[in-house]
Specification:
Helix content of chain A: 40-55%
Oligomer: homodimer
CATH architecture of the largest domain in chain A: 3-Layer(aba) Sandwich
Number of domains of chain A: 3
Strand order of the largest sheet of chain A: 3-2-4-1-5-6-7
Structural class of chain A: alpha/beta
Largest sheet of chain A: 7 strands, parallel
CATH topology of the largest domain in chain A: Rossmann fold
Radius of gyration of chain A: 22 Å
Number of strands of chain A: 7
Shape of chain A: globular
CATH class of the largest domain in chain A: Alpha Beta
């Protein structure tokens, strides 16, 4: 594909267009992913998540500046509707971000998260791969950690940084939202606020009890991102985590598992999309669905019957791959 | 099935055993759902959700007492790990709950939510149907609204009650967690606390802007559940919502859509479970998965190839329905 060749040659415009095709689930996605695959696998992916208002974007912003100062290139995927990266922030934040928009070593892409539930983690993962193949050294993925979808996106990350604030409620709340489980590094931002130290201690105590990461005890760091305080320590912690993952073979394991999940989830996703289509078009399936809707048949045993109907399954599968 | 007959004849023990079979995805689930189906469809299902600590369980507790006082029977499904219904609460709460445990007109079932991500909403929905077929007039489903799974469970409800507290953060936070979108009725509990009125006004303003429910503007009610204040008004609002749903035909529409989703999601769920199994057992699929894991092939185009492999698909489907 010409567009892929241009992208691999370093054209940002080609990269942006390929990302759009991936987002729209263009029929050519399989070809795009196949052609870019041999060039991917070098980048390190950092996930940044946490509740709204924790200052994730400022952390990501300062981290980007620090990584750039080390001479590395950065790709940013912002799935956070409140992030200045994705355009949803106050004017001050946006002006601050312009330094990165003007830097050709930084490529920023925002993704809409509202309304697009299921497929988003897979699409985000594919975009990470494109940025990787494009040659970015570090990829930052930013999400608001309030839903399962947003947590699932973090699957793409090698190191997950969870940003919390003291007034964001107690540590138990963060645990319940699933944030502590996925954190490789915890950041208590706005650490000048009251209760920051105590909150950090609570988190440490909680992690002592609950963390099950092999060879790694997630550290709890204090930052004040807006004054750039603690960002260097955060980057050191990320580097340290990366080293542990590399030395213990966990990085390879994580990536193997990720590729496996990507394969199986794509199969499931395609089957699902096609099933929805078929309900509209296939007479036999349409009839079953109608009877179930009316309440004349029960959904569960009808589902099992559909799965045993070979002719229907053949029709279901025959159109997958042609078109999409 | 003998067990189904016993359950339909009113034996609580038989109901409990059938629920366990549904939870464990027993091979007989299809038969159970088919046999109980003709008796279901009478019950009204109320969902109660909200962040941890909002007092959902106390609201559900008082609501149960009020519904019982009207001579109606109640089935409770507690998917909330902090709920006294599910055993995860302080001693005082549990003692308070005992009145319901000793009342044969109330059937309480708790479900573990930790660790069982994907399938939970479907299993909860099936249990709602069993309680319905058993003859319960009202079914209360309680979850902690922090994840997509918990929100998905609310799909089973005819009326969704979202319980918030003034100090639970601002209205924007509730909106972001997806709670305002699913609420048919909003409850500001612990209304004696500071800021309750202001918080309620914020919610009203937010709902004016964002709510899109046809023929229904979700009301915001103030309660102090522990002193039983406002629970009667809550019940009135539920009744009013039910009446609107019935008169506008929306209740039928909701239930039709629910049955349709139940059918399609069950098909997807079974295909998925079987795919995971097949990866272990099928040589051809195992090889593809291995190559993808190693990074020799890209996941996306490999997924498309799997979907075009008819022989593999036949092996995939042939075992569904036998056994599970």
């Amino acid at each position: 594909m010409e567009l892929v060749e241009k992208m691999l040659a370093g054209e940002q415009g080609a990269l942006a267009r390929l990302i759009t095709m991936v987002e729209r689930e263009d029929p050519e996605v399989a070809d795009i992913m196949k052609a870019t695959h041999p060039r991917a696998g070098r980048a390190y992916c950092i996930g940044v998540t946490g509740p709204p208002g924790a200052g994730k974007s400022t952390v990501a912003d300062k981290l980007t500046a620090l990584i750039r100062a080390k001479g590395l290139t950065v790709g940013i995927i912002a799935c956070d509707p409140t992030s200045p990266f994705s355009g949803g922030a106050v004017l001050g934040d946006r002006i601050r971000m312009q330094q990165h928009y003007l830097d050709s070593g930084v490529f920023i892409r925002s993704m809409a998260t509202r309304g697009s539930m299921g497929g988003l983690p897979k699409v985000a993962q594919r975009i990470v791969k494109l940025l990787d193949a494009f040659g970015k050294d570090v990829i930052l993925v930013e999400t608001v950690g309030v839903g399962q979808t947003e947590l699932d996106i973090m699957e793409a990350a090698d190191t997950v940084v969870v940003v919390l604030v003291p007034e964001g409620g107690d540590a138990v709340q963060a645990l319940k939202a699933g944030l502590l489980e996925i954190a490789d590094i915890l950041v208590v931002n706005k650490a000048d606020r009251e209760g920051a130290e105590r909150f950090a201690s609570e988190l440490v105590a909680m992690l002592d009890l609950s963390s099950e990461k092999p060879n790694w005890q997630p550290p709890v760091l204090l930052t004040q991102a807006h004054t750039n305080t603690g960002i260097d320590k955060l980057y050191e912690a990320i580097e340290k985590h990366k080293k542990v993952l590399q030395e213990t073979g966990q990085l390879l394991d994580r990536r193997r598992r990720r590729r496996r999940n990507e394969l199986l989830h794509t199969v499931e996703e395609k089957l699902k999309a096609r099933l929805e289509e078929l309900v509209e078009k296939d007479g036999m399936l349409g009839t079953v669905v109608e009877e179930v809707e009316k309440g004349d048949r029960d959904p569960y045993s009808s589902a099992m019957e559909i799965l045993k109907n070979k002719a229907l399954i053949n029709r279901w599968l025959s159109a997958i791959g042609e078109g999409n």
